[in-house]
Every structure is written in C-alpha cells, then in structure tokens.
User: Which sequence fits this backbone?
C-alpha cells in the first residue's frame, strides 16, 4: 500500500546508510536475558572485525549479568535476525554478511537468565 | 403601554441559530476547493446535515461553563500551593508520577489543540466544525492548566523545567510525539478516529484512572483537581469521537473498510502508548488504586467489548489487536518499568525497586506471571543495588519504527523471548515491536521511514548540545546526549539517595515536628 496524499509524497529515510558517514547500524540482543530490557544499537564501519563485537560491545554491555561468566562461547548460536549463521571472528562485519540495520541475536544454550526466568 | 417582548429561545433553536445558521455554501469558489482535505482519504459523505450534535452546546454557553471551571480550579490550586500541599502526598516517590505524566502530557495536549483546529477547518458541516473548535480550545486549556500545575512542584523538585525542550528529543518521549505526529499528518477523518475515538473514547479511562484517581489516593489535591477539570470536558470529546464514527459509517457502506483499518491501527497505537501509563499504576503510585491488569479488564475488555458489540450493527469488528492486548496485560507494565529502571542516567525522574510489600502486591495481582518471570529479576537487582552495584545499562536502545517504543515486549505466547518483526523496504531494513506495528508500516511505508529515533540521531551526530561541533575530530556522538537533552543530573538516578528524597523527608519533618 502507499500513503494517500494530496500532493507528491516522497521523503528520504531518516536512517539511510548515507546518514552514518561510513558507518552502519548494528543491533545486538542476548536471547533469554531480558534484564537489559531491549537490544542495543551501535554505529560501526563495515570493516570492523566481528571479534570486536564480542570482546568489546557484547562484553561491555552484558558482562554484569551473572550468566555471562558461564557462557561457553563455542556453543553459542548466532542469528542474523531469524537466520542462523556462524560468524568468523577474524573477519569483518561485511565479510560476515552483516549489513546496515542488521540484528545479531545470540543464544547461550543452558543459560536462561536469573532463576531461569528469561531475564 | 404594553411592552413587546420576544420569547426566549429554546435550547434547540438557540443551537441552530448559533451554529448551522451561521454556515453557508460558498459560491465564488467551489466547496471542494474550500474544503480540500475531506475527500482524499476515501471517506464518502453525502449529507453533512445528518451529523447529530449530541451536546447542542453553543459557543456563548461554552465560554460561561469553562470560565466557571477555571475559577474553581485555580482557587483550589492556590490553596494547595499556599498550604505546601506537595508535602501531604503519600511518599516522595509519588512526585515522579507527576514528572512523568506532567512532563510528557502538556505537549501532547497542545498537539491535540492544533489537530482539532485543523480538522475543524476542514469539516464541511457546521456541527462538527463547532464541536472541533470547542475541543481545540479545551485541549489548549488542558495544556495550560497542566503547566500551571507543574510550576508549583517545579519550585521544589528537580527535572520538570525542560519538558518542552525534551519533548522532541528524548528517547522515552518519542512514542507520544510519534503518536500525535502520525495523527496530525493524517487526513481529518483519520485524525478523528485516532484521537477522538480510539484514544478519547476507547482508551481514555486507562489514562485517567492512574492520573486522577492516583492523585486522589495519594493526597495530591492539585493534580486531582486539574484532572477532574479536564475530565469534565472529556465526556464531550468522547461523544464527538463516537458521533464521527457513526456518521462516517451511516453515510456510505464503502467507508467501513477504511474506518475499520483506522480503528485497528489506532487502538494498537494507543495501547502501546498506555504501557507507561500502566506502569505508573503498578510501580509508581505509593498507594495503589488497582492493577493495570484489573483496569484493562474493566475498561478495555468489558467496556470496550460492549462498545464494539454496539457498533457491530454497522459492520465494525473488534480491533485486531484485542487478543494480544489481553495477553500482554500480564506483562507490559513489568517490562516497561524495567525499561526505565535499567536506564537511570537517561530520565528526568527517578526509578526504584518496589519494596517487599509492594512486590507481594504485584505477586498477588499478577498470579500468572509476576513470580514466574519478573520477581526474581527485580529481587536480584535490589540485592545488587544494596551491594553498591545499582544496575545501569549504558547502551543505546533499539526502537520500533512505528510506535517508537523500545523493542522490549515479548513474543506472543512466549514471555521469555523478545518479539522481533522486520520488513525490507527499498533495500533498507525496518524493525518493529510487534506484528501490528509491522502491518501499520506496510500500509504507509513512505510515512514511517521518516520516524525520529533518538539513538539513531545521536549516532548520526545530530544531537550536539548548544555550542558543540559534530564535525570536530574528537566529537563522540552520544557522549553529550544528556546535555543535548538539558537533563538535570540531580533529577536522574535511583530515588534512593536522591536530593528529592532527602528534601521531601526534611521538609515533611519541618511541617509535622518541632
């Protein structure tokens, strides 16, 4: 469907890639750890190594959760939105097929939050 | 000599002379050029005279009633202020309800005033035109009285002075701003369904219970009086919204599908907007009235269902989101409070973990969900705070492209999973909090690609405080966001240890002890 309007109705997206000066948006969510309320967003160059996502952004945000120290990183299931994928930590976001406004979800089997509540 | 006196006009005659008799059809310009907006949404109107005016209120009577209300209201506000009424509220935490409600609502009242002015200008019939004009003045009055009400609290407590600046900028105010921006940029009939019907008619009680009754229960005579003074206008607003729905549906059978789509859309948008209002009832009022769940059952599930049963004769069906809202009533307030609690440096009001008795109250009111999903987490966060590790999620949020709430609601049927929906439009991904918001986007993608998302704007470098340079090499987008918001640091953080907490306790002691 399209918007009904009295005049030509064409506007740019507020979050088009070109608005980020060489960076792209990336959303990150730790599944079944909803204590953080919602995913978080960062703007990064597409050349950023995937390892930085884990070592810096995921660690900075989530390490205060008691489950974090118990994560078996080799067992983590990664998703780009609903599609399961295996990221290569030594490769960039771009090389891992991660584009602008992609949502990276990671599941840590066996860890289901405080008292198994999903939080 | 006999005096010749003319008979006093009856209400009906008086109404006719003061409204419909003052209207005329234009001849220098065709009517569709003078009223260009009434046709393009697809709503077909054949006879504007069929509009029923349930109140038959004329402008002269309106001014008289409203002036009387204002006199009463300001007399009570003055008495409250002169007697340090703010110290008679149940608990210092209560002030945060006012910060949230009075900080976010007046700008929306102003948008409603602008909206009804615009719609009034577009309505061809004199009946709806006059009703819209009165409602526009009402909304402007609510805007003013709410601000006057803030001003007394603002002398004593932090975080209330920059609400106008923050309205278009702060993350948690974006949902309300988006709600009204969406409505006011729609055509006149959609605006009427959005604000007049879905919000004022279907959902208004959910808004007024926590605010007016909440104020009454918690000893706040001033906010209660402001609320009651506004609520006496709402009966007229509700009637206008309902009359508009009936009028559209009676005028042409083709109007039904359009009206139904708007009812579905705006009931959902209103429901999302009310999540934070429900949170006030369950978490912020020291003396609770009822739970959000109970309010939802009475005012939406029972009264709302009765309304839609009544409208079924026009072919209207219950809003599509009905079942999902019934499921979510068990969850949204707990998820919303966490959403604010975990962000202590980013709101001009305080948050806290409910006390043990309050947690028990929540367990009792939410027997299906609170102990199972939420209580262990809140108790964990409480223990962390007492150990000196008050939870602070410093990251920036992901928001829904349509309702602009942070994406924090659960997948229907699975409270442990976050709900995600996405759509690719012209090569760009857009994310939503729910299937309902995703559907709203699909109807008018050109509109919603323009959504203002605070965290994205900061990452684009658009949120520099005054004097800041986003092109400076060391400029770090996001770092100065609190200054950009003009967020008073004294108003942020946990209630425990705040200046408001200390001041309230000290002033109350002075007022009650020697």
Assistant:
């Amino acid at each position: 469907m399209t918007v009904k309007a009295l005049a030509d109705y064409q506007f740019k997206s507020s979050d088009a890639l070109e608005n980020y000066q060489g960076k792209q948006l990336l959303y990150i969510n730790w599944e079944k750890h909803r204590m953080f309320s919602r995913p978080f967003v960062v703007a990064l160059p597409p050349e950023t190594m995937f390892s930085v996502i884990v070592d810096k952004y995921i660690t900075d945000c989530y390490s205060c959760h008691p489950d974090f120290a118990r994560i078996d990183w080799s067992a983590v299931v990664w998703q780009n939105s609903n599609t399961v994928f295996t990221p290569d930590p030594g490769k960039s976001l771009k090389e891992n097929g991660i584009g602008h406004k992609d949502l990276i979800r990671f599941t840590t089997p066996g860890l289901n939050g405080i008292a198994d509540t999903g939080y | 000599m006999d005096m010749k006196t003319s008979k006093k006009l009856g209400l009906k005659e008086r109404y006719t002379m003061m409204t419909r008799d003052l209207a005329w059809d234009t001849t220098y310009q065709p009517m569709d050029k003078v009223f260009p907006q009434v046709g393009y949404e697809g709503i077909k109107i054949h006879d504007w005279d069929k509009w029923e005016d349930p109140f038959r209120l004329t402008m002269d009577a309106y001014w008289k009633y409203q002036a009387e209300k204002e006199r009463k209201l300001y007399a009570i506000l003055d008495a409250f202020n002169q007697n340090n009424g703010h110290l008679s509220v149940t608990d210092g935490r209560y002030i945060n309800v006012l910060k949230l409600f009075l900080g976010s609502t007046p700008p929306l009242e102003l948008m409603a005033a602008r909206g009804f002015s615009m719609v009034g200008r577009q309505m061809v019939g004199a009946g709806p035109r006059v009703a819209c004009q009165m409602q526009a003045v009402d909304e402007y009055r609510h805007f003013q009285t709410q601000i006057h009400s803030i001003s007394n609290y603002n002398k004593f407590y932090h975080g209330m002075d920059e609400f106008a600046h923050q309205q278009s900028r702060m993350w948690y105010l974006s949902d309300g701003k988006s709600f009204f921006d969406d409505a006011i940029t729609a055509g006149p009939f959609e605006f009427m369904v959005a604000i007049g019907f879905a919000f004022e008619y279907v959902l208004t009680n959910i808004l007024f219970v926590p605010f007016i009754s909440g104020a009454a229960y918690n000893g706040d005579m001033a906010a209660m009086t402001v609320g009651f003074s506004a609520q006496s206008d709402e009966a007229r607003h509700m009637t206008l919204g309902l009359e508009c729905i009936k009028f559209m549906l009676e005028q042409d059978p083709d109007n039904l599908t359009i009206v139904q789509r708007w009812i579905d859309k705006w009931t959902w948008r209103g429901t999302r907007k009310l999540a934070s209002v429900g949170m006030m009832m369950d978490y912020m009022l020291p003396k609770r009235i009822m739970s959000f769940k109970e309010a939802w059952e009475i005012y939406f599930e029972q009264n709302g269902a009765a309304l839609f049963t009544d409208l079924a004769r026009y072919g209207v069906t219950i809003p599509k989101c009905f079942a999902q809202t019934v499921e979510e009533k068990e969850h949204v307030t707990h998820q919303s409070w966490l959403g604010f609690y975990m962000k202590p440096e980013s709101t001009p009001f305080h948050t806290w973990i409910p006390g043990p008795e309050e947690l028990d109250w929540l367990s009792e009111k939410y027997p299906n969900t609170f102990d199972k999903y939420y209580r262990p987490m809140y108790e964990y966060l409480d223990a962390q705070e007492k150990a000196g590790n008050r939870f602070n999620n410093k990251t920036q949020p992901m928001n829904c492209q349509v309702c602009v709430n942070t994406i924090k609601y659960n997948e229907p049927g699975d409270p442990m999973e976050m709900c995600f929906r996405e759509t690719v439009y012209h090569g760009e991904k857009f994310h939503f909090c729910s299937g309902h918001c995703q559907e709203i986007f699909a109807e008018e993608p050109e509109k919603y690609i323009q959504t203002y998302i605070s965290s994205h704007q900061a990452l684009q470098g658009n949120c520099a405080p005054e004097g800041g340079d986003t092109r400076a090499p060391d400029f770090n987008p996001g770092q100065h966001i609190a200054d950009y918001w003009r967020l008073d640091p004294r108003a942020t953080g946990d209630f425990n240890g705040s200046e408001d907490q200390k001041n309230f306790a000290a002033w109350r002691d002075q007022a009650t002890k020697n």
Observations:
- Residues 53 and 127 of chain B are 6 Å apart (CA to CA).
- Chain B is about 60% helix and 5% strand.
